[in-house]
Structure of Catalase:
Amino acid sequence: MPQPLKYNRKFDELTEEERELLEINKKTIADFVEQSSSISDVNYATRNAHAKTYATAEGTFFIDKNIPDELLPFFDSEKFDLTIRLSNANLKIKNKGKDIPAYGFAVKVRDEKGGLIANFPLVNFPLFPTNSVSHFLKLFTAVNRFYIKKWSSFFSLATQALKVVPSVFTRSFARNIFKLLSKRNDFILSFDYHSVGAYRLGEYMIKIKLVPQSVDKNFGKKSKMKEAVKNYLQDHDYAADVLIQFCYDLKDQPVNKLNVEWKNSPYLKIGEVRINKGDLLDPRNCSNELLSFNPFESKIFFQPVGKIQKLRDEAYKVSMQTRKKINQLLHGVK
């Protein structure tokens, strides 16, 4: 295996202006979560992204027997336990109409004793609409305020959205938009899932891709997605290949340029994710809504890399703390 580039904490460093914008954004996240039960018309506080849970399930990550020797120290067991959450990216839970085809496949990896190894929130769209931390924070803040204040903040939201538009005009982004539109009616488990940003693998940096082995894209066409997911996982096994790409050259594999795909870095299979039929968790259990998939809770050698990724740490924490406080008061969940 060629020598990949090594991780450097400089990839993660935010400017003072970006830190100030992050503090403003964190306040709007807390405000959104506090009002999320009325926003989504549910009896609990939701996440401020990927609010709708389709299903949670137990799974297993089996390590490929042919992975390079250099990777063996990171995978010191033949298999690892998983908790998986399938979700929709919308901030608001919709119970009527069709969900936008923006899905999440969040994975919590544990060792045989139940200790957390890593969280990987994967999504079915491999790119991010902007490389600017400032633009993203201002847009995300405007989105949160729009849901809280409604049309009185529409002008601010539209202004910030227009600033992001130029960064989506890349060949990679356009190609993936058309691909998503062509698959917009496909079953959630038939999609590939991606890490979007980079993650550490020890000293090196990687991207992750999950590719289903055999899932009918037309499954559950006449059902709501939540019901289709439940029916599928009750009656079918699910299996997907876990692939990674290494960062060798920042020109071809940019860490802080998330609106283009990595090139000239072949995919390497490191294992398989499997969900046995019937391994669904009880959807009535309130503790499922308190599950955290913050990737910064991972062991240090599996944590996210990059400026946009760095924002997730504080955002996840404030969202989780606010949800936990409210849901414990409402339902006594610990």
